[in-house]
């Protein structure tokens, strides 16, 4: 086998170096593609990986060549891997992707001001992405998931507030386009399989990137993976339809595994959608993509509890658009329009009469008095809402009416009244970090007694303020039952918060508590340092004063613990 492998390598090396390279037959690559197809169909299937590996090595050798030549080699590689994927290429699966991703990175890093060279580089990058997509199309679904995780691992998911370098943005864009290409080849069956935690978390972090193009790509990836019933093409336009049956949407009851997945990880989607809505760099296509994500979540995983959470999220978005002072008026109009289109869709899908009546009534009022809060006006480039006044109450969807309508159909709406908060909503202030107003002890009023043993010379043991008697012990025993009841009630309250409370609120409280704790610890340590420094200075002064007057050993007072 080794002899046959070496024989194939030697003949191929002679062929493309002695013929294709020397005679510059890679561009155009029609001849090269036909030749390699003949080679792939001529060798046995188990040796197909040899041709793939040699082409990748040849691409590495030409890493500094003209991008048109590299693109031609990649196109030949694409045709080759399509044939090899039908056989056994074994461990070279990720090797192909790793090589192509590396060349994409190198291409992005190339500095050039030549427009023709820049255009050729983009074509080369697109060739690499298309090759990855075509190769992934011939792999089983479990390998497609691994490839998506592999590509996601190459993306820098840092979302700090520092301005991103143009090269970093370009590289992230190329990698996410690659991920989108692979995702289009994957057919989602269960959401828990498509959105594994190592894949979901970095993808969600990228969804709040500072670049609107990257955020749009992430939403498109979510659309591709969420859409199991080919509803995506029917939702491309944000609009309000009197009868959504014209869209011919396919809606099925979500499997139990998906419901459990959303109960566990749904907060990731909700919080990041909420954060996306208030990005100042959003464009119209960003708002349209967020609407599609909301709609697909409702269509694909619209179980009762999930539906209530989505309505709660939409109400939170409406409140954000009403109260936010940092958002431009155009953005606030788009948010109101997205919420209106989403409620129009979901009310007709749920077919709850009271809900449909309320949604229709608000939309009709907007058509007469506030068309800028509907998609037709809000998603028009040249339209701008310049009125300084906020929306009138009759223009908004009423939480109480929605809650009552959902409750009448048997849904549990207890969570609907909980305000939707982002993780920055809980501020450190004079209130307690648990959300209950109360006094916070002043750290500077804490006195620290470092030495309290009576055996220390010159010091006396502190006395208890209350004398311990039989009556005192009886009182402690009597009060302990009441303390236990209070402790149980407190534990039950905490348990209820973690079971029923919104995930983002729990995270915000935990982060605030940790921040406050660390600030107190820093103050305590600072006080200890100052006190220790003061004691040390006093000792030094005393030593300097008494340096010439040694104390007789019989006058030294030793602690009781050291006296035998």
From TrEMBL:
Cellular component GO terms, alphabetical: plasma membrane
Record GO biological process: protein localization to plasma membrane
InterPro entries tied to this protein: ARM-type_fold (IPR016024), EFR3_Homologs (IPR051851)
Domain of life: Eukaryota
PANTHER family found in the cross-reference section: PROTEIN EFR3 HOMOLOG CMP44E
Entry protein name: EFR3-like protein
């Amino acid at each position: 086998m080794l002899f046959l492998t070496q024989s194939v390598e030697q003949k191929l090396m002679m062929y493309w170096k002695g013929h294709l390279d020397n005679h510059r037959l890679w561009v155009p690559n029609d001849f090269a593609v036909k030749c390699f197809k003949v080679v792939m169909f001529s060798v046995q299937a188990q040796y197909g990986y040899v041709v793939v590996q040699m082409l990748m090595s040849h691409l590495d050798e030409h890493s500094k060549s003209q991008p048109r030549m590299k693109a031609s080699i990649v196109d030949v590689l694409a045709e080759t891997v399509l044939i090899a994927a039908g056989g056994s290429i074994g461990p070279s699966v990720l090797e192909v992707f790793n090589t192509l991703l590396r060349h994409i990175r190198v291409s992005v890093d190339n500095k050039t001001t030549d427009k023709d060279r820049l255009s050729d580089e983009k074509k080369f990058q697109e060739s690499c992405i298309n090759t990855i997509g075509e190769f992934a199309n011939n792999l089983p679904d479990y390998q497609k998931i691994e490839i998506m995780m592999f590509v996601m691992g190459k993306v820098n998911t840092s979302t700090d507030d520092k301005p991103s370098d143009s090269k970093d943005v370009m590289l992230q864009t190329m990698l996410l386009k690659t991920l989108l290409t692979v995702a289009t080849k994957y057919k989602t069956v269960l959401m828990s399989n498509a959105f594994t935690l190592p894949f979901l978390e970095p993808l969600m972090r990228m969804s709040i990137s500072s670049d609107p193009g990257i955020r749009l790509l992430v939403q498109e990836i979510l659309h591709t993976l969420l859409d199991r019933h080919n509803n995506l093409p029917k939702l491309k336009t944000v609009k309000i339809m009197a009868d959504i049956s014209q869209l011919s949407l396919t809606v099925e009851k979500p499997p139990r595994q998906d419901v459990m997945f959303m109960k566990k990880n749904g907060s990731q989607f909700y919080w990041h959608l909420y954060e996306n809505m208030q990005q100042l760099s959003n464009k119209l296509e960003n708002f349209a993509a967020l609407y599609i994500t909301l709609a697909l979540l409702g269509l694909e995983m619209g179980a009762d509890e999930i539906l209530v959470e989505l309505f709660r999220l939409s109400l939170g978005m409406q409140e954000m658009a009403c109260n936010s002072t940092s958002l431009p008026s155009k953005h606030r109009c788009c948010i109101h329009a997205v919420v209106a289109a989403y409620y129009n869709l979901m009310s007709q899908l749920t077919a709850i009469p009271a809900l449909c009546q309320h949604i229709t009534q608000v939309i009709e009022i907007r058509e007469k008095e506030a068309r800028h809060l509907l998609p037709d006006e809000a998603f028009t480039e040249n339209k701008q809402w310049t009125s300084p006044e906020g929306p009138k109450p009759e223009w908004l969807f009423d939480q109480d009416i929605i809650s009552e309508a959902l409750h009448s159909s048997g849904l549990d709406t207890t969570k609907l009244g909980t305000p939707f908060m982002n993780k920055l909503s809980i501020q450190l202030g004079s209130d307690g970090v648990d959300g209950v107003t109360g006094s916070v002890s002043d750290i500077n009023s804490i006195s620290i007694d470092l030495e309290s043993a009576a055996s220390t010379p010159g010091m006396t043991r502190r006395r208890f303020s209350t004398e311990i008697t039989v009556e005192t012990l009886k009182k402690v025993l009597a009060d302990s039952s009441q303390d236990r009841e209070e402790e149980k009630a407190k534990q039950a309250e905490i348990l209820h918060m973690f079971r029923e409370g919104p995930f983002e609120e729990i995270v915000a409280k935990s982060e605030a508590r940790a921040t406050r704790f660390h600030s107190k610890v820093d103050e305590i340590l600072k006080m200890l340092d100052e006190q220790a420094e003061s004691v040390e200075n006093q000792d030094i002064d005393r030593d300097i004063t008494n340096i010439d007057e040694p104390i007789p050993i019989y006058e030294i007072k030793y602690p009781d613990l050291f006296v035998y």
